C-alpha cells in the first residue's frame, strides 16, 4: 500500500548561490557518507548532486507527511548511490516500509520523486 508520494523541484542557480555564500550548507544537507560522494564531483556536477539530494530529501519529507522540523532533519535522511549509479535510501529505514526515489537534472533544475510503500506481514490482515 502506498503511504505517501512526494515531489520536489529546485533551481540549480539558487543552490549554487547558497553554496557560494555558505559552504557549510553542505553540512546541513548531506550526511558524512553523502559528502564523500559529493567530493568525487567537480564544478556544476557538485551543484547538481547537492540539488538532487536536497530535492529528494524534500520529496521524502512530503511523502512521509512530516515535513522538516523537530521530527525530521535533512541529515536524518540519507541517499547513497547503488552499483549502477541509482540513488537509494539508506535512512531512515522504518520497519514495514520501502522507499523508492528518482532524481533528475536539467541544465537549470533538479527534481525528485519519492514513493513510500508500506507492507503488512502475510499473516496480518
From TrEMBL:
Chief site of localization: cytoplasm
InterPro entries hit by this protein: 4-PPantetheinyl_Trfase_dom, 4-PPantetheinyl_Trfase_dom_sf, ACPS, Ppantetheine-prot_Trfase_dom
Pfam families listed in its UniProt record: ACPS
Cofactor: Mg(2+)
Subcellular localization, as worded in the UniProt entry: Cytoplasm
GO terms for MF: holo-[acyl-carrier-protein] synthase activity
Reactions it catalyzes: apo-[ACP] + CoA = holo-[ACP] + adenosine 3',5'-bisphosphate + H(+)
Positions of Mg(2+) binding: 8, 58
Keywords: Cytoplasm, Fatty acid biosynthesis, Fatty acid metabolism, Lipid biosynthesis, Lipid metabolism, Magnesium, Metal-binding, Transferase
EC assignment: 2.7.8.7
Domain 4'-phosphopantetheinyl transferase: 4-90
Function: Transfers the 4'-phosphopantetheine moiety from coenzyme A to a Ser of acyl-carrier-protein.
Family in the record: Belongs to the P-Pant transferase superfamily. AcpS family.
Protein's name in the database: Holo-[acyl-carrier-protein] synthase
Amino acid at each position: 500500500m502506498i503511504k505517501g508520494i512526494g515531489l520536489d523541484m529546485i533551481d540549480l542557480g539558487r543552490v549554487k548561490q547558497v553554496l557560494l555564500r555558505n559552504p557549510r550548507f553542505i553540512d546541513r544537507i548531506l550526511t558524512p557518507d553523502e559528502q564523500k560522494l559529493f567530493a568525487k564531483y567537480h564544478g556544476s556536477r557538485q551543484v547538481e548532486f547537492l540539488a538532487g539530494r536536497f530535492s529528494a530529501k524534500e520529496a521524502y519529507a512530503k511523502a512521509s507527511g512530516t515535513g522538516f522540523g523537530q521530527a525530521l532533519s535533512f541529515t536524518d535522511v540519507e541517499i547513497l548511490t547503488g552499483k549502477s549509479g541509482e540513488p537509494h535510501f539508506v535512512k531512515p529505514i522504518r520497519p514495514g516500509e520501502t522507499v523508492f526515489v528518482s532524481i533528475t537534472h536539467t541544465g537549470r533544475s533538479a527534481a525528485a520523486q519519492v514513493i513510500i510503500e508500506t507492507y503488512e506481514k502475510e499473516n496480518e490482515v
